Amino acid sequence: MSARLQPLSAFTTHLLSRTRHPTFCNKFETPCFPSFRLVSPQGLLGVVVLSLAAPGTAARRAGAWNYRGWRTGREALPLRLSLLACAPAPAIMAAPLALVLVVAVTVRAALFRSSLAEFISERVEVVSPLSSWKRVVEGLSLLDLGVSPYSGAVFHETPLIIYLFHFLIDYAELVFMITDALTAIALYFAIQDFNKVVFKKQKLLLELDQYAPDVAELIRTPMEMRYIPLKVALFYLLNPYTVLSCVAKSTCAINNTLIAFFILTTIKGSAFLSAIFLALATYQSLYPLTLFVPGLLYLLQRQYIPVKVKSKAFWIFFWEYAMMYMGSLVVIVCLSFFLLSSWDFIPAVYGFILSVPDLTPNIGLFWYFFAEMFEHFSLFFVCVFQINVFFYTIPLAIKLKEHPIFFMFIQIAIISIFKSYPTVGDVALYMAFFPVWNHLYRFLRNIFVLACIIIVCSLLFPVLWHLWIYAGSANSNFFYAITLTFNVGQETTICGLEPKKGSDLEALGLHICWGCQPETGKALRQSTLYPQLFSPF
């Protein structure tokens, strides 16, 4: 046994000495104690996956096995073990991802050439006053005339965006297709690395035999985890919301790309690149500022630094990451000033986002409420509405400090719901993460009803808009009612995924020490084996 595992071996021996009953590892109920020995330097997981040679019929004949071939009690171990089958699954070949990319690009190219492109680009669900392509074109026209694009009340995008399309205006469709492809690829590799960490967490607890009986069904097998990155890319690229956003040439797609690369660089452990992409995302739409906290928490885990206020290492790393983030943001803002020789973009972009002066209907919560409000009350309620995006960061950071990626997912969903000018492109980004936690769907209440609500609301948006604006047989109350229903459906879905306290928290099994005894988790974190969580396979 390696010397670095010796501190842990004494603890595992103590566990074995306290074991009163053997576990049963095969269909013949042959008693055998679980092995705590690491089977290879690569970290083969000999107690996770059913052997490829073990037929499913044998698992069904073995007795009370669940649908995965796992026992439902404390003895929930695989039917047969195979080191080859239990090894970490290799990365998916590029062919399936390339096929998904080809299909996604083909669908977008076909829609770009269809008569639907103009109709989609005018839909209030797909574009907003911030992300509308027509407003970008208007800003480019003003820039070509030597006039500041922010001189009117039309253009509200950032200076870097307008200068980007100043050179690529003839290739705008290609730019948006490439943007979506880059987002999907970044999410693919981010989730692939995240799954490696999850795999190693499970491996350590299985080696200690410290999973609670009701957590066995939640253990992720490598075969299940192998296809999750591809599913994430598929969910993003072929999501109708993403397709519509791309065809409408909504600049929301660019913001999604920046957030996706922020997630990728954070999971990779690059604090510098993470800070740069977070600064770019904040510069683009302001609200990603709230992703600073989950990004910091994950990087602290990568550095094995405990989240303690009295820890000197915690504060050193906090200030390092904060300075990299703020420095990158200052550089980007100064670059924008040098491009325009003016600070007009600050009130035109960020003041527009925060004050919500344009009450064009959208799928958000602001427009109807402030259209009915007296002017002298608006400032107070704008602050109340805007604080929703930022306020939940604090309690979520306390609740999910050990689960920064899940925290990041929840925060992205909160941004898409409570931002002042949301579009379906914002919704598509967090929906792409649903496959990552597909093993938690069983804890969702009324999942079928919630899915139907979101789908039906998406279909009713254009119907009620037509009845209100063109047919005149409805009014704004109808459209806002379906908007409220859509957002309630999103909120209920997200709240259903959040871990609850007590027994539910143990059953979810999201954390390395959930489902194990507290003293085991403490010993695990203090052992020399814990740093292997973030080492490559």
TrEMBL record:
Protein name as annotated: Phosphatidylinositol glycan anchor biosynthesis class U
PANTHER family for this protein: GPI TRANSAMIDASE COMPONENT PIG-U, PHOSPHATIDYLINOSITOL GLYCAN ANCHOR BIOSYNTHESIS CLASS U PROTEIN
Subcellular localization, as worded in the UniProt entry: Endoplasmic reticulum membrane
Transmembrane segments: 43-60, 81-107, 160-191, 258-279, 285-301, 313-339, 345-370, 377-398, 443-468
Membrane-topology descriptor: Multi-pass membrane protein
Taxon lineage: Eukaryota, Metazoa, Chordata, Craniata, Vertebrata
Family: Belongs to the PIGU family.
Pathway membership: Glycolipid biosynthesis; glycosylphosphatidylinositol-anchor biosynthesis
A GO term, aspect molecular function: GPI-anchor transamidase activity
Record flagged with keyword Endoplasmic reticulum: yes
Gene Ontology terms: cellular component: GPI-anchor transamidase complex; plasma membrane
Signal peptide: none
